[in-house]
Each structure stands twice: as C-alpha cells, then as structure tokens.
Amino acid sequence: MTVTVPPARSQEFIAGARDTIPMMIGAAPFGVIFGTLVTSGPLALWHGQLMSLAVFAGSAQFIALGLIASHATFVVVWATTLIVNLRHVLYSATLAPYVAHLPLRWRLVLGALLTDEVFAVAWARFRLQPPGEEVSPWHFFGSGVAMYVNWQIWSAVGLVFGAAFPGLQSLGLDFAMVATFIAIVVPQLVAVRYVAAAVTAGALAFFWQGWPYKLGLLAAVLAGVSVGVALSRKAGATVEAAS
Amino acid sequence: MSYVILILGMALITWLVRTAVFVLGERLVFPPLVRTALGFVPVTVLTALIVPMAVSPHGHGAELTWRNPQLVGSLAAIAVSLLTRRPLVTIAVGLGVFFLWQGVVLR
C-alpha cells in the first residue's frame, strides 16, 4: 500500500519555476526590446522599470509605449490596456476552480501574476489533478514569481542598453516593435476569420489614423473584432446545420 | 509625475481584470458571444498598431513603395513568420532586412 504525500511547498515552487524556464527565455528578447523602446520615447528610465514592476503585461506595455509616443490621452491608454488585457479574464475563468478554495490574499496575488505564459504553465499542472481535490497554489506561485523576476531583469537590461546607445532611435529602432508584433500576430492567423479580422482592423486603422486621441485605432479594433465574430457565428451555424 | 499616474492606472486596470474572476467566482459569467469576441482582440489590436507604422512611417499618407524600409522589413518578417513560425527568427530577419535596406540599399 502506498501513501501519496503531497510535495513540500518549496518543491512545488521550484517545479513551477522550472516549468517556466522555456517561457522565460522566450520573454527575454521582448523585455530587452521593451526597455530599449522606453529610452527612445518620452518616458524616463525609471518610468519604464516602474511599468514592468507594476503592470507586468508585455503586450499592454508595448502598446502603451506606442500610444504614448503618438500623444494619445491617458483615457485612451487605459481603455486600450483594458481591451488588450481582457483575454486574461478567460484565463482566470479557466483556472478559477483550482484556486476557489484559497484565502482571498492568495487569489489576489496569483491573479496579479497571471500572464499568458504563467497561465499556460499553471493550466498544464492543474489539469493533471483529479477533479474535486484541493490543489497547492505553490506551483502556480513559483511560475508567476519566476516570470515576474525574469521580466524585471530583461526590462532593466533593455533600459541600460538603450540609454548607453542613444543613437538607436534615429536608426529607426521603433521598427523593432513592428517586427515583434508581426512575430506574435502571424502565427495566430490560423483560420480565415482571424485573417479577415486582422486585415479589417489593420486597413481601417490606416485610414482612420487621423482621428483624435487614437480613437480611430479603437474603432478599427472594434470593427475587426465584429468581422471575426460575424464569421465565427456563420461557421457555427454551418456546423450546426451539418450535424 | 503624470506618467506615474498613467502607469499606476494601467497597473490597477490590469490587476482588476486578472483578479476579477478569482474574487467574484461563479458570479461572473461570460456569454458565448463575448468569449468569441475576446479571442479576436490580440490579433486585431496588434495589427491595427503596426499597419499604420509600416505603411505610412512618417504619418503623411501611404508610402507603398520599395523605398519604404519599414514596409520592406515588415513584408520580410511576415514571410519568415509564415515559413518558420519562430518569433526570434522573425524579429531577427525583419530587423536585418530593415537595417540593410535603410543603411545600404537606399544609400
């Protein structure tokens, strides 16, 4: 007869951090590029580090830099942050059953650390758990802390690097952001409806770029999302009719 | 100072979005339509940001010409991403083509 002893907290924590290493390597260049871009914009170096420390959301941070550089108002930056981060609601909805038994302070901390990468690692761990069994939060926590520390280090490296070579901006380094976003977007274009949504949003953002407060960008995103939703419903209806 | 308010506002919004379901639990339910819509947000936002930067880098109308290094670099990055699906290779080649175009080809 075997008795399964739950792994110690530190073991779970370390396992969570270890499982996150590939994600940390993947995030490193983005952290460096983020830091470098800060030095080419109106923000001070410590503003850049503060953003990494307090916001801890790569794509929202990049987009905020782009918006700040183009003189968007605060409200537009905040609204965009909200829209861009709304996908995290889906992540937390997926993980909620596994953290529901924890005290509030645990749930507040784990939520703060919930990035795309940490979600992937935490979900991979939780789904192995038999349903109904209470799960230790330490693996999730280890993954989140590892990702957080990693993001701080590489942001700082980018800030120092960008400050040491101030001529980078005149070289057109802001193109690094364009290349980075392309690297994120293109692999996600897995179906016609995603391509249609992206093309709609991109084309309208170009034509509407003269709108005040970057509102053209928000309108273009809404239009692109609407196209995507319309095509999804059509696809859903077809599937139902066929079944 | 004002940028600190901007950053802390972003932090608060991000944190509220991430913890809402953890705190509210079952009381927060998303209709299927909203779930579908959220799935299209990252792709559309990022594309809406890069297209104007690549097509009209100076903000004075479209520069759909081979003399626009942002556009040439973007097309190279898209091609590499379609072929390899590897972010680092995409960024490296895109940047390489961009700098080569700007510094050597157009010189």
Topology:
The complex is a heterodimer of chains A (243) and B (107).
Chain A: H1 9-19, H2 21-39, H3 45-54, H4 58-69, H5 74-85, H6 87-99, H7 104-112, H8 116-126, H9 138-164, H10 175-185, H11 192-207, H12 215-242
Chain B: H1 2-24, H2 32-39, H3 41-55, H4 69-84, H5 87-105
Helix pairs in contact in B: 4-5
Concise overview:
Chain A is an all-alpha fold and about 240 residues long.
Question: What would your notes on this structure say?
Answer:
- The complex is a heterodimer of chains A (243) and B (107).
- Chain A is 74% helix and 0% strand.
- With 243 residues, chain A is mainly α.
- In chain A, helix 2 runs parallel beside helix 9 and helix 11 packs antiparallel against helix 12.
- Chain A starts with 8 loop residues before the first helix and ends with a helix.
- The model of chain A has no long low-confidence stretch (mean pLDDT 86).
- Chain B has 2 domains: 30 residues; 65 residues.
- Chain B is 76% helix and 0% strand.
- The longest helix of chain B is centred in the N-terminal third of the chain and has 23 residues.
- Classes of the chains: A mainly alpha (243), B mainly alpha (107).
Biggest sheet statistics of chain A:
none
Structural class of chain A: mainly alpha
Largest interface pair? A-B, 87 and 66 residues
What's the domain count of chain B?
2
Keywords:
heterodimer; A: 243 residues; mainly alpha; 2 domains; 12 helices; 0% strand; B: 107 residues; 5 helices; 76% helix; elongated
